[in-house]
Design goal:
Strand content: 5-15%
Strand order of the largest sheet: 3-5-4-6
Number of helices: 10
Distance between the termini: 54 Å
Structural class: alpha/beta
CATH class of the largest domain: Alpha Beta
Number of domains: 2
Order of helices and strands: HEEHEHEHEHHEHHHHEE
Amino acid sequence: MIGLGQRFRYFEVLVAIDAEQGDAAMLRGLGANLRILTLRTGISFYRRRAAVAMEAIGDIVVLTTPTELALFDILHMIDDAIASSSIIVGRRGQARMLDPALSALGRGAGFRVSTRDMRTAAYPRTLLNRLLAHPDHRLALRFAPIDASIPVREHPPESLIPRPREGRLHRLKLLHRLLISSAPAVLTVVALGGLLAAGVACIFTIYVIIVWATFDKVEPGWLTTSLALSMTALFLGIAFLGLSIGLQKLLEAVSIATDDDVVGEASSIDLFGKVIEELNVEVEFSRNMNLAGPGPAHP
C-alpha cells in the first residue's frame, strides 16, 4: 500500500469511518495491514483526527485525507521526519486572504495557524505524544503549537490541486476553536481593561471632589450624577479585573503542567567518561558478538 510494504517490515494503515457508512468487516479485504476505526457519526474533523492519532502505534504516524493521499510522497515525508526528528507538514504555496487574521489569532492562542497548511502531516512518536498531551490536543494536531522544542518543516505537494471547498461552517468552527484556545490572552486583555477603567474612575472621582470643593456654584445634580458614574465605572472595573484573574487561575489549575522547559542541552564535560577514566576502567567488546553480549569489563 503506497510502497510501505516494500520499505517497512511492520506498518499498519488506519481508516476512520462513521458508524453509518457501512460494515467495517467489508473493508478489511481491501488490503493487508489495514485497521478500520468506526467512529461516532457526526463528530468534527478535529475529533476524528485526534481519535486516529491516539489509536496509532507506529514510531512515525502520518495523518492524511483521501483527497490528499495521492498528492504527497508519503515515504519521503516519513524519511524526512525520521532524519530531522521534526513534524513534516504538507504546505501549499499560496495562502488565503484571511491568512494574516487567522495567523494573528493563532499566535494569540499559541498555535502556528496558516491557511497554507494542508491536512497531511508526518509526526515522530515523541512529538506526537507531546501534542496528544497538550490541553487542546485536537487543535495541536492540526496546527503545531508555538514551541521551540516542537520543530516543524514543510513539504510541498507534488501536484497542484484546487483548494477544497471547506465551506463557511468549517471556517467558523476553526475561528470558534481559536477563540476558545486564546482565552488566557483575552482574559489578560480584559483584566488590563478592568484595571484601566478602575484607575480612570478613581481619577474622575478625585476630579469631581476637587471641582465641588473649589467652585462655589455647581450645576444642580452634577455632583451626584458624576459620583454615580464614577462609582459605577470603579465597581465594574474592579469586577472585571477580579473575574478575569479568577478565571485565569482556574485555567492554570485545570491545565496540564508538563514542566518541559528544556529544549536543548550542551555540555563541556562528560561526567560519566571522567568517572570511568579516574577509576581506570576499560571496557572491551568481543569482535565475534554472541548471545551473551559484550565481554566483561577489566579494571
